[in-house]
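Technical annex B. To support the medicinal chemistry partners, we prepared a structural model of the target in complex with NAP, based solely on the information shown next.
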Amino acid sequence: MENSYMSRVCVTGGSGYIGSWLVKMLLEKGYTVHATLRNLGDTSKVDLLKSFPNADSRLVLFQADIYNPSEFEPALKGCEYVFHMATPMLHDAQSSQYKDTPEAAVASVKAIADSCIRSQTVKRLIYTASFMASSPLTEDGVSFKSCMDESCWTPLDHIPALQACDITPGYTKSKILAEKEALKYNECENGKLEVVTLPCGLVAGETVLPYVPTSVEVLLSQLTGNLMTLNVIKLLQEVWGAIFLVHVKDVCRAHIFCMENPSMKGRFLCAAYNPTIREIAVHFQEMFPEYQIGKELLEGPIKGLECDSTKLIKMGFEYTYDMKKILADSVACGGRLGALVKVKE
Ligand SMILES: NC(=O)c1ccc[n+]([C@@H]2O[C@H](COP(=O)([O-])OP(=O)(O)OC[C@H]3O[C@@H](n4cnc5c(N)ncnc54)[C@H](OP(=O)(O)O)[C@@H]3O)[C@@H](O)[C@H]2O)c1
């Protein structure tokens, strides 16, 4: 859909893995995009974004850091929709304002949502949330509910594995608190701002970046044997009961779907498949015998926990990438960027 009226949108974190695809797709659809990144002097990121089709006439770049959230205000000016995708992965120890990433992440949501309201042009804020905030573990953390849906919130205090070792320190807490903060804006009386949160599963597939994005590395850990990322995929299965997978292009399509819908607010899970590590390993082995799979990955649970992500589908969204394509595109990305070593031709 070409949005002719006020077709100006903002993407925070526009140079990240998902952000760069989203900026590219929005430009291709004819939107004018305000994208933020932390350092406009980083020519590798700036040049990449400027190389996208339509970027010369429709892309405006802004510098903004979550640790100084008022910097986002100029980027939101004149926009109708805002995608808040930037998230602090590592704490800025220089910060005297915030003690950790969760504090900084929540402050950025508040600052951005308040700026949206002040702008009088922003109609909807779409926050990229994470399945790390919607674990189907029971409140005491000892067993799984029958399926994951939008009512699930990760019982962080009762998951020792997450307290000992998160994706990055404070990541899960920041995703839980920031998403809850964003959703509060839907409860404001006379609130004119609609907020959609899109918790996403493990996002994988090709990239436009010159390196393999972390979440693709996590999926490919089965083929690279990288212990750090293997530990992350094992953590995901422990916290989710499956590896909830979604293709990066479907994630971007879902974000654009949530924007183009005439009216939409609330929480919508975004994941297409629920394999286990073992099922993924079997697929990898069949599809890519030239790579070696650790034997222990072919053990473990056969069937993943169900995820009821029909809320988004009932709104009319369709996933277009099947599981084999997600795996194949991720392997193509890892192979192209030199992250995979073949054991046989
Ligand atoms: N990939 C997944 O599997 C997945 C799953 C669920 C949810 N998500 C969510 O999707 C969003 C994007 O993730 P991604 O996978 O695309 O990660 P990514 O490639 O690491 O991108 C992270 C983005 O956050 C920005 N950022 C980091 N610290 C910042 C700060 N202090 N101030 C401003 N911006 C900052 C980075 O900006 P610079 O480029 O300027 O450094 C980058 O654009 C995140 O909110 C993440 O939680 C991702």
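Notes passed to the chemistry partners:
The radius of gyration is 20 Å.
The chain is about 40% helix and 15% strand.
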